[in-house]
Amino acid sequence: MAPRVKRWLGLGSSPAVGVQITNEGAFIALVRPDGPTVVGLGRVALPPGAVVDGQIRRPTEVGRSIDEALSAIHWNETPLLHLVVDPVPWMGVDQPGVVPAPVYELLADGTERETGVVAAAEQVVASTVAAAEPVRGTVRSVEPAPVAVARLLRLGRTSAGPHFARFSQGGNRWTLCDADGSLDVEVTHHPSVLATLVDGPDPAHLETTQWGSLQLDRRVRAASPLPGQHAAAAGAALGSFGLRPTANLLGPAATAHLSAGPFGHWTMERVR
Questions:
Q1: Which residues contact 244 (CB under 8 A, 6 or more apart)?
Q2: Model confidence at 254, in pLDDT bands (50, 70, 90)?
Q3: Is the pLDDT of residue 235 over 80?
Q4: Per residue in 39-62, pLDDT tens?
Q5: Per DSSP, which regions of 24-68 are E strands?
Q6: Rounded Cα–Cα distance for residues 110 and 5 (Å)
Q7: pLDDT per residue over 72-94, tens digit each?
Q8: Between β-strands 37-44 and 215-216, what pairing exists: parallel, antiparallel or unpaired?
Q9: C-alpha triplet 269, 134, 82: angle, nearest 5°
């Protein structure tokens, strides 16, 4: 993990932890409730071949690598973990090996409204939860990356109206449209060597994603002027403070789709 994340010595509650495990390593973001404020970013190198196409082949090794990095941080209380996974195409009906997650918004009267559905691969979700087992902390959510990124973008935006974002990496690409109380996500296959995240109000002219008005510790902003590959992890950690949208793949509707496999039968009760 980057040196700037090796020790956190704040007073008060511990920061929420966002984690995205990819072929390139585990990306971690620490967010404190005041602001909320991003206070740390880091990347944990993983053993070669431990993660292939988003599926964690050696979850115990991966989890221990992440836990070792987090062990260097001073925790005043058990941290809350928010995990991120890549999305897969969703056809609107039950699909073998696919776990859907309803996207929820909070209405003015305090009630929730479903505004879309984003799905992930069952084995990716199960292996991610399995990798979290050795990690210190309590798992609170597993959500598709577009939802986490949408949350981060909302906090950084200063303008209203429809907003778009697009992420490309490897052979996958997803595009989201956040508008009029709805969140639409399209997942396609698109060859791309480098990871890129762009956003903006005009889908034909998207620009490199910025932190915008989101609050960051000054050292974090100096070391990471762009969110880059930490965007999803940071957005996931921000969900710890009730910020919307939300789409928890560990919710009752989602876990009903998780079946027994090489990583066991994972439900919310199995997660610490």
A1: 104, 105, 106, 151, 154
A2: low
A3: yes
A4: 999 999 999 999 988 889 999 999
A5: 25-32, 37-44, 51-52, 55-56
A6: 36
A7: 888 888 899 999 999 999 888 88
A8: parallel
A9: 65
pLDDT given for residue 256 in this prediction: 43
Rounded Cα distance, 242 and 238, in Å: 8
Give Cα 56 to chain centroid, integer Å: 16
Q: What is the mean pLDDT of residues 193-216?
A: 93
Question: Residue holding tokens 């490199």?
Answer: 208
Give the Cα separation of 57 and 41 in Å (integer): 25
Q: Using CA atoms, how far apart are residues 265 and 61, in angstroms rounded to an integer?
A: 20
Helices (H), the chain: 59-70, 122-132, 145-156, 218-223, 231-238, 252-255
59 in helix, strand or coil? helix
**Helix and strand totals (H; E) in the chain:** 6, 13
